[in-house]
Amino acid sequence: MTTIRIKRMNLPTELETVVDFKNYVRYSREEETDLTDLKVDGQEMEAGDLGQLTFENVFFNHCTFTGVSLYNCTFKNVYFEGCAFPSCNFSHSWLDQCKFSNCQMKGADFSESSISNTEFAECSLKYVNFTSSKLSKCEIRESDLSEAFFASCSLKQVILEKSQFINTEFFKTPLKGLDFSTCILEGISISTEGNELKGAIVNVYQAADLAKLLGVVIKD
């Protein structure tokens, strides 16, 4: 089996601490500069607009952004630790070499985004929308993706470990090469033909459940 090599997030040792994030963003827009080499601690924002900004070498630590627009943003080498992003809009964004650790992201929108070399660890990703997104060289471990949407996605070299995919939608998303064997995989949605499942790696119990989607009757 081919080893998946992920370029991990690696922040600089020296980061500038941001005291007032909203004003810092306002200044960045006025000066047309990127947000780089920053540590953002415990900041809160509701229904704000951070769209079309570039974040590089940034550490977001226990921040809460509720219903915030991060539309068409660029995130390069960014670490999110213990953050909450309920109902935030990350659509059309580009993420590379990022890490989300112990984050609450219920209902966030990542549709039509490009996500690479990125790790989701111990995150709540329930109801998250990844429709028409591209994920490559990513790792998802010990996270809950129940009722998330992966319709019409490209999932290439994605590591899955001990995560939940309950009532998750994979409509028109090829699952070839994805190893769900350590995960909970129940009640997923796929097309009637079931072509999405071709080449997916599952355990024997998951196979029995998936067979029902294809109309196979399993006799005890």
Question: What does this 3D model show about the protein?
Answer:
The protein has helices spanning about 20-30, 205-215, and strands at about 15-20, 35-40, 45, 55-60, 65, 75-80, 95, 100, 115, 120, 135-140, 155-160, 165, 185. It has about 220 residues and is mostly beta strands. The protein has one domain (about 35-215): E3 ubiquitin-protein ligase SopA (Pectate Lyase C-like).
Counting DSSP H or I runs of 4 or more residues, the number of helices is 2
CATH class: Mainly Beta
* Number of E-type strands: 14
Biggest β-sheet, characterized? 6 strands, parallel, barrel
Overall form = elongated
Report the order of strands and helices. Answer: EHEEEEEEEEEEEEEH
The helix content is under 10%
CATH topology: Pectate Lyase C-like
SS strand fraction: 25-35%
CATH superfamily: E3 ubiquitin-protein ligase SopA
Low-pLDDT stretches: none
Strands of the widest sheet, in order across it, are: 6-7-9-11-10-8
**CATH architecture label:** 3 Solenoid
Tally of structural domains: 1
Question: Structural class of the secondary structure composition?
Answer: mainly beta
* Mean residue pLDDT: 95
Rg over alpha carbons: 18 Å
Q: Determine the N-to-C terminus distance.
A: 33 Å
